[in-house]
Amino acid sequence: MIDYDGEARAYDATRGGEPRARAAAEALERLLPQGPGTVLDIACGTGIVTRRLQRPGRVVLGVDRSPGMLAAAARRIPGGAVCGDATRLPFASGSVDAVVMVWLLHLLPEDAADAVLAEAARVLRPGGRLVTTVDKEQAYFTEDSEVARATAELRDSYTPHAPDRHARIRSWAAGHGLRPAGEALFPGTGQGRGPRQWREAIDAGRIPWCRRAEPAQVAEVVRRLAELPDQDTPIADPLYRLVALEPSGPPAP
Q: Which DSSP symbol is given to 27?
């Protein structure tokens, strides 16, 4: 697992910075309830997306278990950054109007991802909405490229087990009384990695499908990437997918 305390200072710069955060927030806004209410961002990280959700009459809270990340988030959402675990949220049942989870579920073991969805459903008010990213590991390879071909065997072996696969999320969500309520896409501006950047990300432990593989398999992928030409030429930017879910029952009167 990534050391988020250690990465907090450089996290935004290595994850697309303000352009990606702006695109994410704009897409989230298309799916969030409008008007007054409380929005909870689970695993808010540095708060770079969270702060962009602030609107007149809307209370925006961010929860994260990394003190390093929360220190940055506290500067962006003063009074709204809360230390907590996504599987045991420090909020009352039915206490928020919307829950946001951006780039979280793909990092978790399956049982933890399901537990996080259950917690999100628990704190959501009737008539509220949950918005989460899905299929993150597939977002980088929407087009054919030498990088895609070099990594295809390993990805094909391990991404089917990714806990944020859309079909899997819909199935788990249904078990927690949530139904589909919309989708949106947004670009990962500047996030198309070249071969060298992919190797660096793998070496840093940032690629989930590599963390699931055997070391020898990962080493072979790194070797293939190192042999590619144009080491610093990025592939196409990823296109991330958001899905909205809402309680199946009618909202409270």
A: H
The model carries a pTM of: 0.88
Amino acid at 241: R
- Residue corresponding to tokens 């399956």: 110
DSSP for residue 85: B
- For β-strands 58-64 and 37-42, DSSP reports them as parallel
Q: What is the pLDDT of residues 123-147, one digit of tens each?
A: 999 999 999 999 998 898 888 899 9
With a cut of 90, say whether residue 175 has pLDDT above it.
yes
Alpha helices in the chain (DSSP H): 4-14, 17-31, 67-76, 110-123, 146-158, 166-175, 195-203, 208-211, 215-226
The structural domains of the chain, with segments of one domain joined by +, span 4-140+162-192+236-247
DSSP string, 185-246: EEE-TT----HHHHHHHHHTT--HHHHTS-HHHHHHHHHHHHTSS-TT---PPPEEEEEEEE
- Using CA atoms, how far residue 180 sits from 84, 173, 240, 243, in Å, is 27, 9, 17, 7
Q: Determine the CATH number of domain 4-140+162-192+236-247.
A: 3.40.50.150
